Automatic annotation (TrEMBL):
Protein name (Swiss-Prot/TrEMBL): Fibronectin type-III domain-containing protein
GO annotation, biological process: sarcomere organization
Gene Ontology terms: cellular component: M band
UniProt cross-references to PANTHER family, sorted A to Z: TITIN (PTHR13817)
The species this protein was found in: Gulo gulo
Segments forming domain Fibronectin type-III: 1-57, 63-116
Lineage: superkingdom: Eukaryota
Keyword set, alphabetical order: Repeat
Amino acid sequence: MVGKKSWIKIGEVDSKVTNFSTNKVEEGKAYQFRILAVNSEGVSDPLETDEVFAGNPIEPPGLASQPQVTDVTKDTMTITWNAPTQDGGAPVLGYIVERRKKGSSLWVPVNKDPIQ
């Protein structure tokens, strides 16, 4: 499991087998696997997989709807939008709003933490 300090041996396979399945995982937890080759002279250095989550794959969410600016005053503006239709397999935690001045290509975050 990602974040643990030690590796756990989950199995061995014959030299002619080049795949392995395990059900010793928990949905939503991140895992990493490594494999070592063994012969009469010893054990190879390990090679590791990328981090993978058990369960359905999670992807970034889709696009929110086109934002609309409403309620404009000299001091404030209100922005509204709709949530993305695709959440990527995990709940949307919030939104980051950015702004830029007319004529500038520099986008500046309005909020430090995602807006709920």
